[in-house]
């Protein structure tokens, strides 16, 4: 029988450990040979970071204010439209009652016209109060 010749005479773990330690040693020796005196001065990054942070914060504040303004405007428009729908329905219901239609037939017609139930009931409640 022939003996197997191993590619790793020290074993895999020891061979890898030697390779890694040699690599680390070569990196540290390379860093040790750099002459720092000839390097240009490093820029002051703290001031640049502070400027960038202020810029980012101000952009975020502007975006937040814009979103809040948009949502507030949409809520205002929906309330205005809701109140306008109720006023229009009040007039419509009064005209239908004067023409002789019952409240149930008016409600059915409004539901078929895709008016929301809360708007219909609110309009009828407003007319009962008057």
Topology:
Blueprint: H1 12-32, H2 45-98, H3 103-112, H4 117-129
Helix pairs in contact: 2-4
Can you describe what's shown?
The chain has 130 residues and is mostly helical. Helix content is 75%, strand content 0%. It has helices spanning 12-32, 45-98, 103-112, 117-129. α2 packs across α4. The longest helix has 54 residues, at 45-98. The protein is elongated.
Radius of gyration: 40 Å
Task: Give the N-to-C terminal Cα separation.
Answer: 113 Å
- Which parts are unreliable, with pLDDT below 50 for 5 consecutive residues or more? none
- β-sheet strand percentage: under 5%
Describe what is shown at a glance:
The protein has 4 helices and no strands. It has about 130 residues and is mainly α.
Tag the structure with descriptive keywords.
mainly alpha; 130 residues; elongated; single chain; 75% helix
């Amino acid at each position: 029988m022939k003996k197997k010749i191993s590619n790793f005479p020290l074993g895999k773990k020891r061979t890898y450990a030697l390779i890694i330690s040699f690599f680390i040693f070569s990196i540290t020796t390379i860093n040790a040979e750099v002459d720092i005196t000839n390097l240009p001065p490093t820029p002051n990054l703290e001031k640049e970071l502070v400027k960038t942070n202020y810029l980012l914060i101000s952009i975020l504040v502007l975006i937040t204010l814009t979103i809040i303004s948009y949502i507030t405007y949409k809520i205002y428009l929906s309330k205005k439209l809701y109140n306008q729908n109720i006023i229009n329905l009040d007039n419509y219901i009064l005209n239908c009652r004067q023409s002789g239609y019952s409240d149930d037939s008016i409600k059915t017609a409004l539901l078929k016209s895709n008016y929301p139930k809360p708007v219909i009931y609110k309009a009828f409640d407003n007319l009962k109060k008057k």
